[in-house]
Specification:
This protein is about 30% helix and about 35% strand. It is of the alpha/beta class. Bound molecules: adenosine monophosphate.
Length: about 170
């Protein structure tokens, strides 16, 4: 078992019946747990030699921003619709529960720029795949994907075929 699992908790039937919500707030509020997660993510992200990090709203921001600071690179925010003030590109995708859209500023990624995408959790992989497609639409290269948790009982690997994905904690059943 990952030593990080002890900092996590899971909440049954949130946000709706039948969904088990993996709560990272307990990891974040523990200095030791948060640092350990960042140390492990940093090792992977550093190895992919990114020029920028794309962090996904909203829990991905917490990890993406801290990692960007550690690596001395910038962080780009992939946001829910209507939050980014300048010209955007947008994609709609399916969630484990419902559908959503994600946006990037059109000028946020340079052509051929090496990008690592950061989020807290991969469930179906829909959100990360959407972020990757936005980055590629702008001409960027997704050289890695980093998440704290993956739900390995969901078929996200099929969706993320071709991407280098690193996760720290895996849950193999609900
Ligand atoms: P997905 O697009 O299905 O991979 O969903 C990933 C996004 O939804 C992440 O940004 C998570 O924060 C959130 N999410 C989806 N399912 C869960 C879950 N069971 N527990 C906690 N967060 C989740």
């Amino acid at each position: 078992m990952s030593e990080l699992k002890k900092y996590m908790r899971s909440i049954p039937d949130f946000p709706k019946p039948g969904i088990c919500f993996y709560d990272i707030t307990t990891l974040l509020q523990n200095a030791e747990g948060f640092k350990l997660a960042l140390d492990q993510m940093e090792k992977y992200v550093q190895s992919r030699q990114p020029e920028t990090i794309v962090a996904i709203e909203s829990r991905g921001f917490l990890f993406g921003a801290a990692l960007a600071d550690r690596l001395d690179i910038g962080v780009v925010t992939a946001r829910k619709p209507g939050k980014l003030p300048s010209k955007t590109i947008s994609v709609e995708y399916a969630l484990e529960y419902g559908t959503d859209s994600l946006e990037l500023h059109s000028d946020a990624i340079r052509k051929e720029e090496r990008v690592v995408v950061v989020d807290d959790l991969i469930a179906t992989g829909g959100t990360l795949k959407a972020a990757c497609s936005l980055i590629e639409k702008l001409g960027g290269k997704v050289v890695g994907v980093s998440a704290v948790i993956d739900l390995s009982f969901l078929p996200w690997r099929e969706k993320m075929t071709g991407y280098d994905v690193n996760c720290l904690i895996s849950y193999d059943s609900e």
